[in-house]
Amino acid sequence: MKRMFTVLAMVLAALSISFMACSVSSDNDDSSITANGVVNAEIPIIRTGLADGTYKVGATATALSVEATVSDGGTLTYQWYKNEVKITGATSKSYTPSTTTAGTFKYKVVVTNTNEGVTGNTTAAAESSATVTVKSTDPVVVDAATPLISKGLADGTYKVGATATALSVEATVSDGGTLTYQWYKGDEEIPGATSNSYTPSTEAAGTFTYKVVVTNTNNSVNGERTATSIQSAIVTVIDSTKTNAEKPVSITGITGTTKYKQGDTASALTIEATVTDGGNLSYQWYKNEVNITGATSASYTPDTTTAGTITYKVRVTNTNNTVDGNKTAIVDFDIQVTITAIVNAETPIISKGLADGTYTVGATATALSVEATVSDGGTLTYQWCKGEELIEGATSASYTPDTTTAGTFTYKVVVTNTNNKVNGEKTATAESSATVTVNGNEDKTGSGKIGFDFN
Q1: Distance of alpha carbon 257 from alpha carbon 309, whole angstroms
Q2: Interatomic CA distance for residues 31 and 37, integer angstroms
Q3: What is the pLDDT of residue 141?
Q4: φ, ψ for residue 61, nearest 5 deg
Q5: Non-local CB neighbours of 455 within 8 Å, separated by 6+ positions
Q6: CA 5, CA 360: separation in Å to the nearest integer?
Q7: Does residue 9 sit in helix, strand or coil?
């Protein structure tokens, strides 16, 4: 009997030792412990992930950087990828992306933990990614400068056979181009009339329109190499022995609003002209000396789609076929209309966006932080959201996410530029977002199989 109790005691002791050997507890969610007690390398926890970024071609990018940890004593290594292609030699925890080519590129870093001391898988990996946008900076296109006419042509009235005063134009350019001139009578080019002055003929009675086209040629620019300005004048030659059509008269000239913002709805420019000789009045409008097709009434509504200062002119012609002299008389009236370009608040450029992060419940999260700039002198403000819900009071450039509850959460910051000095939209926004994962902190316990053979 004594021998039987001794054997039973030995069996119970062996059973107790077996249970102790097969019950293992781990406080690390990232360690994998199998049923037979095999321990794998811990998966790295990425404390600070990569941040998206936007740059112009040739700008210096902010380095992408990752912060990762393990608690099993393993060694961390890094490998960077661009659009899923391994970047040779990029094996540190930071990498500065190239900005030589415009486009949108995905960068990824794979963080590997190697632990030769474990009994299972000796490596485990985690990764973080970011999108880098490189915007094209197209070269500034420079066109030849438009000639500036400081002295234009003057109308003139002469008797048949009298000596006319030369028509003369004075023009300059500031871009070093070369000015040339070509004179026209009506729309017909006058051969050889290529200086800056021209003396009209008075041999025949009539009303004649002369114009000069001033051309600036600059072959050193990278855009349009020529630019032109046009000036015109009316020369009337009368036979004093005959009755001629009367010149139109306008007391007020052209009336109408002369200043607009780009895109505004303009009101009509209007001319009120009269004659007393019973002739018929007709009208033709011009924009910067160029005939406006179909604009043949006493009023014209200017276009406001293009910014600049535009000279509008209406040519009023009196036609009187009852007289025995010049049957037409012409007078030009002009007005300048200024269209001011619309300037909107500049969209913020986010030079450093938000970085994803992974944490355990109750851990202290790294603050999400955004860096943004504008060059128009506006004021930047910030508003954070969790999902699509505004976070009250979260209005600085950084925000520390909550880790009290497990789950996957999207945080977003809306950066607003407010510029009350512009004449268009006074606000513009940009945004950046990140995903924050909060893991639970449950212990993992493995169990082994225990067997007894009493044979």
Answers
A1: 13
A2: 12
A3: 85
A4: -80, 150
A5: none
A6: 51
A7: helix
Of 70, 86, 84, 47, nearest to 122 by C-alpha is: 70
CA 242 to CA 235: how far, in whole Å? Answer: 18
Amino acid sitting at position 321: N
Round to whole Å and give the CA distance between 295 and 314: 9
Between CA 427 and CA 347 the distance in angstroms is 8
Cα separation of 151 and 289, whole Å? 15
> Can you tell me the distance from the alpha carbon of 378 to that of 372, in angstroms, rounded to the nearest whole number?
12
- Which ranges constitute the DSSP H helices of 193-246? none
CA–CA separation, 416 vs 419, rounded Å? Answer: 10
Nearest to 43 by CA among 121, 129, 117: 121
Contact 294, 337 (CB under 8 A): no
Structure tokens belonging to residue 454: 């009493």
Predicted model pTM? 0.61
Q: Residue 349 phi/psi, 5° resolution? A: -100, 120
**DSSP state at residue 388:** T
Check residue 221 and give its pLDDT. 92
For residue 44, count CB atoms less than 10 angstroms from its CB and return exposed for 0-12, middle for 13-18, buried for 19 or more: buried
Mean pLDDT across 95-120: 93
Residue 442 has pLDDT above 60, yes or no: no
| Separation between Cα atoms, residue 157 and residue 238, nearest integer Å | 8
Q: What is the pLDDT of residues 185-243, one digit of tens each?
A: 999 999 999 999 999 999 999 999 999 999 999 999 989 999 999 999 999 999 999 99
